[in-house]
């Protein structure tokens, strides 16, 4: 985590940017259909806690992901601030056009690293999804939108098993050639371990010099937070997280949630790593979200609280 102890209890601070993905990746796999108003409330609470990049929604077919059917309505209702950037996930040109019209600040495209999952998740081959990125890159720049690419199943596929690291690195090289701003390595089904994270982050950094490197971890097998630490040690500067630890991919069998934003912030705060995020407010939002969903969220701090004790 690039934290150097001085022999006592203080550590050197390193800034890490956290992207809140709860409104999109968090809610998309929930059984309870969350109202547009509550989605906007979740986004507003995230901003109040200090989060400044929010994955607000995805512009996908509403029959495939019903939770995201109100994408335009969500974007119409979010607070507009100069210091907040809203990300919309898109899979094709139709989604891009919708996102642009809805007023997103950034678009996030997805390239899946395994053929079977790519066809189930996006209805296209891996090569076709790379071409989508190429087709949209220039239009994103012309529209003044940030463009990121998530390399999904980068650490393993539920249908094909192990994904060769060389495949992921090559995909990173290909999308980097289009001039994307940021490349995210996603452990879509939560199978990665720290050694994998270190190798992949190093490989992608070499293949995509100058691109911001981001990581997206799920805690399916209790390795998500260890992977986050490994990512920071490897030079990653941006991490995705979901308030309450909710979420998962609807097209991945037995999917469970993302790493929880509040749990991640606790880990970083106690390690002396600056995030600019208010832990107390995050814990309050996670508890509020439990009420919205009608069940306790997976994140631990919603139950345990922080240490020393927080009043959230």
Automatic annotation (TrEMBL):
Q: What class of enzyme is it?
A: lyase
Q: Which GO terms describe its biological process?
A: ketone body biosynthetic process; L-leucine catabolic process
Pyruvate carboxyltransferase domain spans which residues?
A: 16-283
> Sorted alphabetically, which keywords does the UniProt record give?
Lyase, Metal-binding
SUPFAM superfamilies this protein is in? Aldolase
- Per the UniProt record, which EC number(s) apply here? 4.1.3.4
For this chain, the family text in UniProt reads:
Belongs to the HMG-CoA lyase family.
**Which PANTHER family does the record cross-reference, listed alphabetically?**
HYDROXYMETHYLGLUTARYL-COA LYASE
Q: What is this protein called?
A: Hydroxymethylglutaryl-CoA lyase
The protein's organism comes out as Nocardioides agri
Query: Source organism lineage?
Result: Bacteria, Bacillati, Actinomycetota, Actinomycetes, Propionibacteriales
